[in-house]
Amino acid sequence: MKHEINTDPVLQIDSLVKSFGNNRVLNGFNLKLYEGENLVVMGKSGSGKSVMIKCLVGLMHADSGTITIRGKDITMMRPQELDILRTEIGFLFQGSALYDSMTVRENLEFPLRRHKERLRIRESNINLVKEALENVGLSEAIDLMPAELSGGMKRRVALARALILKPKIILYDEPTTGLDPITAKEIIELMRTIQKKYSTSSLIITHDVDCARVISNKIILLINGVNYIEGTYKQLVQSTDPLVKAFFK
Ligand SMILES: Nc1ncnc2c1ncn2[C@@H]1O[C@H](COP(=O)(O)OP(=O)(O)OP(=O)(O)O)[C@@H](O)[C@H]1O
Ligand SMILES: [Mg+2]
Please, is 159 exposed, middle or buried when counting C-beta atoms within 10 Å of its C-beta (0-12, 13-18, 19+)? Predict the structure, then answer.
């Protein structure tokens, strides 16, 4: 691929190892995300996808391996540096993870309050909140509580919150899981719109084959802690390997 020759990855994982007791979840996992790319990681439940993404954002510490974001090794970073880097990365948690006691507006203001001074954001919070909600088509929900939202609406709000600092890299952990097929499609469309609007690079974790088909430039299958196979959707659906076929049937 031409961009692999011309540019460095915006995000790179090398030989990531992570165990919990005797359970070795990641056993030398590798990944390279290039600018503007939609990279999908698929793997069955319990294969370590969320563990991988948590290591990426520093919520978990890997046993070994390196994680480089924009050329900086995050495994060597102090908490303060890591905090700054986090503002460049949007993270959509598995299952939305909104603060239940806060309104939609307060949920969106949370990352702003935390990082605004350092980021020297000039715009008022309320304008940024409104823009983020407009992006996900939920302007009218600004004063609602999470309990008043449907599952699909919650996912949209979580997406708006992940985007509010206009990150260049977005990590999605199961963006469509638990949603009906139509709502899932809407979320996928939103992800595409947002990528075009802000030219972000995305790492998408999913076991939704439709999502992978529509959105991926490249797919990595995570099996037994390693990259079992990598390729485009087209390449992977044509695979005759039973383990790969099981995903795309
Ligand atoms: N904090 C933890 N302590 C102990 N074991 C953990 C912890 N977090 C994850 N694990 C284990 O690591 C493995 C991978 O979990 P992970 O959540 O990454 O799976 P996943 O691929 O995201 O699955 P799903 O598709 O269901 O979200 C599981 O066996 C899980 O039990
Ligand atoms: Mg998970």
Answer: buried
Q: What pTM, to 2 d.p., does this model score? A: 0.90
Length of the chain: 249
Question: Is residue 46 one of the residues assigned to a domain?
Answer: no
Report the domain count for the chain: 1
Residues around ion ligand 2, judged by CB within 5 A, are: 49-50, 94
Angle at 146 between CA 56 and CA 149, to 5 degrees: 110
User: How far does the centroid of ligand 1 lie from the alpha carbon of residue 34, in Å?
Assistant: 26
pLDDT tens track for 21-76? 999 999 999 999 999 999 999 998 999 999 999 999 888 999 999 999 988 888 77
Q: Which of 143, 150, 109 is nearest to 128 (CA)?
A: 109
Listed in sequence order, the DSSP H helices in 73-124 are: 79-86, 104-119
Query: Does 48 map to a domain?
Result: no
Residue 54 CA, closest ligand 1 atom number = 18
